[in-house]
Amino acid sequence: MSRFFATTYEYDSDSSSSESDLLSSSEEELLSSSGEESDDSLFNEDSEGSDSDVDSDDSDGKPYGPDWFKKSEFRKSGGSGGNKFLKGANYSDSEGSESDDEGKKVVKSAKDKLLDEMQTVFDKIETAEMSDDWISVLNEFDNITRLLVRAQQQNWGTPNIFIKVVAQVEDLVNSTSQADIKKKDVARAYNTARQRVRKVAKENETSMTQFRENPDEFDKEPTVDLESSEPAMDINAQFAANKSVNLSSLAAASSEVSFFTSLRIVIDSRGKKNVNSQDMINIIEDLLASPTSPYESIMAYLSLIPIRMEATSNLSYQPIDQWTAAYNDYMALLNLLEDSIATYRVSELATFNEDIETEPVADAQGVKNILGSLFAFVERLDDEFTKSLLNLDPHSSEYLMRLKDEQLIYNMILKTQLYLEQTLPAEKKESLLARVFVKRLDHIYFKSDKLNIIIETNAWKSVPQGSKSEYIPVPETIDGKYISALINSLCDILIKQEDSFLRTRAILYCVFFTASNGNFHAAKEMLLTSKVQSNISKSNSSLQVLFNRVVVQLGLSAFQACLIEECHQVLNELLASAHLKEILGQQPLQRINSNIENREEQCIPYHQHINLDLIDVVFMTCSLLIEIPQMTAFYSGIRIKRLPYSQKSIRRVLEHHDKSSFQGPPETSRDFVLYAAKSMQKGDWEASIAYLKNIKSWNMLPNKDVVMENLVERIRIESMKSYLYTYKRFYAKFCIKQLADVFNLDTAKVVEILESIIAEFEINFKLNDDKTALVVESSDEITKLEEVALRLNKEYKITKERLFPSRRR
Predict the structure, then answer these.
(1) How many domains are there within the chain?
(2) Average pLDDT over the chain, rounded to an integer
(3) Cα distance between residue 41 and residue 173, in whole Å
(4) Which of 215, 492, 619, 753 lies 20 to 30 angstroms, CA to CA, from 14?
(5) Could you tell me the pLDDT band of residue 596, with boundaries at 50, 70 and 90?
(6) For residues 80 and 73, is the Cβ–Cβ distance under 8 A?
(7) Is residue 321 part of a domain?
(8) In the β-sheet with 773-776, what is the strand arrangement from edge to edge?
(9) 635/659 Cα distance (integer angstroms)
(10) Residue 495 neighbours by CB under 8 Å, 6+ apart
C-alpha cells in the first residue's frame, strides 16, 4: 500500500515483497520524475494532453481543479492512483489482498490510545508553532496536562512524550519575544503558557535534564526509566555524608542496605520536589517482604500508608487499586498491633522519638508507645472512598461495585474502635473516641433497620472472636432494638462532649434516625428542645446540609403518620427555595464552583439522596388536602382566612393550569396531583384517588399501604367539605345518610365533620333535631350567576376609568 493512502506509516523490515514493489515502482519513479512532469504538464501548453477533453477523468493532460498538485499516476484510472480512492471505485481481483489488509482494524490498549493522543498533541503544537498560534499551543498544552492526570490515575507514570511536549513548549517560549506579539489575546495566551510550562518543567526537572542530555533515548520506549543509577554499596556512605540518594537505585539495592537506613532515606525524601513516590513505596514494600521485627514492621507501615495517600493527592480521588493497597496495609498494621498489644502500641499521646532506630522506652506496664494516629488513616481512607463515589457515575455498575466496599470501611472503623478502647487511658477515652463514634454514625444513621442489621452483623464477624465494646454490649442476635440502642448510645456520648460541632452533628443524626423510623413526635420534640435551628446558619456547610435533610425527613415522617398539617408546615419553608438540590447536598460535584474549598462537604453520595420527586409529591398532596377545601369555601362566599401559598402550592399550579391554552392528559407526578385537585373541587373523590394512585413515587415509602389507606379516608372527608361549600347555594337540605353513602363514610363520622364545620365557620348550616339532615338556612347570599354579573360589572368600571380618565371628574 502506498504511503499516500496510509494515515500513519512505519517502516517494517519484514514487510511483504508486494509492498516493496509498490514503493519502488510507483513512488520512487514519481519522485525521480516529479520535476520533469511538473514542467511538461503544468507549464507547457503544447503538451500531449493539451487538446484532450478537460472533463475526462482519464486525461493525462493539464491538471485542473483540486487535483492540480497530484502526479499523473494518481490521476490515471487504471493504475494504483487516487481516482479509485476518491471515487470509491471497485478494485480488481489482483488488488483484493491489499483491500483486505486495509480493512483490518488494529485493536489498541487504553495505554496505547493515550500515548497516541499525546503524540497528536505534539504534532498539533508543531503545526501551531509555524504560525505562532499561541492560543492553540496553550489549549493543546492544557490537553496533554489532563492526559497526564489520566495516565497517573492508571499507574502508568509519566510518559516520555509528555516530557517531549514540555521541552517543545519550553523551547518555543524561550525563542519567542513578547514584544513581537501585537494581539492582546495572543499575548495573554503566551504569558499563560510561559507560566504553566515553567511550573511543569520545574516539577519534572530531573526528567527534563535527562531529555536535554539524550533526547534519542526518549524515542525508544514510551515510559523508559532514564534515572541514573548508583552502586548500592555507596548508598550508606552517601547517606552518612548527607548527600542526595537516588531512590530508584536504592529500590534496586534495598536488600544490601540496612533496614533503618533505607527507611530514614525514604522519610527524609518525603515532601521534596522531583521525588518519585512509587520508588519510595517500592523500597518500603521490599523492606516488609523480608523478615522483620514487630517494631520495624510498625515503623514501615506508619511511613508506607501516608506515602500511598500523598502519591495521589493531586487527583480528584484515589484510584481504587491504590486505595485497596492502602486499606490492606492499614489492616495489616492493625492486625500486627493487636498481636503485639502487650509490647507495642501506636498512640497519639506518645512522645516523639527522633531516632527511629532506637525503640521507645517501655512504661510501667512494659508497653512501648509509638507516636502515630491510627484513626487519621481511617478518616483518610473513608474520605477517599466518599470522593470516589462522588466522582463515579451513580447509575453505572462501577458505582455499585464501589459501594460494596462500605462494608470494609465499617469493619475497619469497628476494629479500630475496639483497639482504641483497649489502649487509650480511661480519663481521656470518651473524648478521643468521639471521632470514631461520629464516623461510625456516618454510615448507619440514614439506613433502614434491615440494612443496619446486615452491616453490623458482618462487622462483628470480622473482629476477633470474643471482642466486646464497653459502651454498647452486643447481644447474640442483632436486631432492630440493638440498632436503636446503638445509635442512641453513640449520640448520647457525643452530646456530652465539649465540641459544639460533634454535639450538633450527634443531635441531627439522632433526629434523622428517629424520624426515619416513623416516630415523628419524638423527633420533633428532640429537635425543638436542642434549639439547633437557632444557630444553624452560623455553622459550616456540612452541618447546614445535614439540618436540611433532617427537616425533610421530619416532613416525610409526618406524612407517613397522616399528619397532613404538620407535614405541610415543616416542608413549606424549605421547598420555597429555588435551589433544593444544593441545600440538600444533592447537587452534582461538577456543578459546584471549583473555587470553593472542600467541595465534598457540600455533596453527599447518591445512595444517601432523598428522592426529590417524592418530596414534591408529598408537599403537593398536603397542599391539595389543605387548600382545596379552603379555596371552594372562599369562592362560595364563606368568610375564611386564606393561607399564604408558596410557588409549589396546588393553588398556584391550578391558576397556571387554568391560564394555559393547551391542557393535555396527566403525564408527570405533578400532573396527577393537579388533576386529583380538580376532581376534588367537584366532589369526585373516586377520580381524585385514582389519579393519586397512579403516582409511582409512593413505592419509595416504607409503609405505602398504610399511607394510602389513611390518604383515601382523608380525601373522602375533604371532598365532602368541598362539595358542601360548592353546592350549598343550590340546596335547602342535605340528607346525612345520602352524604355518607356518596362519600363512603360512616354516618357518625359525617355528623362529626358537619358539627366541626358549623363550629369553625360562620356558615348558614344547621343540623335537625335527630341529626338526619343538614338544613341550609336562607340568607342574602347571591347566586353564581349574580356573582359573575357583579364581577363583570366591576371589570367594566375599571376598564372605563382606564380608557376615559378625564371623565372621573
Answers:
(1) 4
(2) 79
(3) 44
(4) 215
(5) low
(6) yes
(7) yes
(8) 733-735, 773-776, 765-767
(9) 18
(10) 503, 506, 507
